Amino acid sequence: MRDKFFVIDGHMLVYRSYFAFAKNHMTTKDGFVTSAIYGFTNTLLEIISKQKPNYICVAFDTKVKTWRHNKLQSYKANRPKQPEDITKSFKFIFDILDAFNIRFYSKDGFEADDIVGTIARKIDDNTDIFIMTSDKDYDQLVNGHTFIYKPKGNKYETIGNGDVLVKWGINNTTQVIDMLAIIGDKCDNIDGINGVGIKTASKLIKEYGSIENILSNLGNFNDPLKTKIKDNTQNLMDYKDLVTIKTDCDIDFNISDCKVKNIDQSKTKKIFNTLEFNSLLNKARRIFNTTQSLF
After folding, report:
1. Are 57 and 8 in contact (CB under 8 A)?
2. Confidence class for position 151, pLDDT limits 50, 70, 90
3. Is the separation of the CB atoms in 158 and 147 below 8 Å?
4. Are 28 and 47 a contacting pair, CB within 8 Å?
5. End-to-end CA distance of the chain
6. Which pLDDT band holds residue 291 (cuts at 50, 70, 90)?
């Protein structure tokens, strides 16, 4: 049986957990909002219980602006400010990961995407990698042993190589990069080519393979598409760089550090008592006590 490595997009899970309780936030007796922390922790426990990974880790962004912000000043400029309740939650989330003996990674100047991409490419082909995220950018990392584990309501969808090709209408998953550069990404404030959608982009990439080849064959196009592409030559190359997930970050990674281990029960109990996670403490003990074969 092949080993399973789960890499979690940390900020995605924190935000998803927080807004899942938007209509009725969880709080301690003194009013501290624990929704993000509870949802994050409960999801970790569910993954370990149901998926039984051999390895697990979490990647986070940092507060420092990244190389992408330096390249495009308006990068992610349209994002709303992070809710204060989420900001206050991170300390406890990091403490819980420490108590669970789950390694987490971040690096100033890089996004979690780049950390995940680097980790995914450091793992050999004998281990299946499951990237837990709802971010479409990660589709570019999918290959024969790298999958997206995408939250979908209360369930999860495992997205493989073939799924990505059908979804984007392309020939190989690395072409997701070219597609994103052409159609843009509103979430990150990347414009793309105005008026060119996924169908046209898919047709172009299927025929020419890459943005570079499209630009080398502009003589084959008729206006107005030819003009749109020509006028965006430099932008397209910049966008392609921006949407490319880096896979060579200088991080201190060793797969053995990410092996699923037993929790530190003393640390866990102390944190959970502070957060009033009584039922979650019992759940954590039960899950880790019944998965000893993993350690």
Report:
1. yes
2. very high
3. yes
4. no
5. 16
6. low
One-letter amino acid for residue 196 of the chain: V
Would you say 62 and 10 are in contact if contact means Cβ atoms under 8 Å apart?
no
Phi, psi of 291 (to 5 degrees): -125, 35
| 53 and 18 within one domain | yes
Instruction: Give me the pLDDT at residue 295, please.
Output: 37
State whether 30 and 123 are in the same domain.
yes
Question: Do residue 41 and residue 156 come from a single domain?
Answer: yes
Domain at 230, CATH number: 1.10.150.20
Distances (CA, A) of 283 to 79, 81, 166, 269, 286: 35, 34, 39, 12, 5
Same domain as 137, residue 17: yes
Q: φ, ψ for residue 281 (rounded to 5)? A: -65, -45
Do the Cβ atoms of 276 and 148 come closer than 8 Å?
no
- Residue 193 sits in which domain range? 167-243
Phi, psi (rounded to 5 degrees) for 4: -120, 130
- Total of domains in the chain: 2
| Alpha-carbon gap, residue 204 to 198, rounded angstroms | 10
Cis peptide leading into 83, omega within 30 of 0? no
Task: Name residue 100's amino acid.
Answer: F
The torsion defined by the Cα of 264, 269, 271 and 275, in degrees rounded to 10, comes to 150
Q: What percent of the chain has pLDDT over 90?
A: 82
Q: pLDDT digit string (tens) for 165-186?
A: 999 999 999 999 999 999 999 8
Question: Cα separation of 194 and 181, whole Å?
Answer: 11
- Whether 43 and 113 map to the same domain: the answer is yes
202 and 98 inside one domain: no
Q: Mark whether 34 and 133 lie in a shared domain.
A: yes
Question: Residue 26: in which H helix or E strand, if any?
Answer: none
Helix (H, G, I), strand (E, B) or coil at 216: helix
Q: Helix (H, G, I), strand (E, B), or coil: what is residue 128?
A: strand
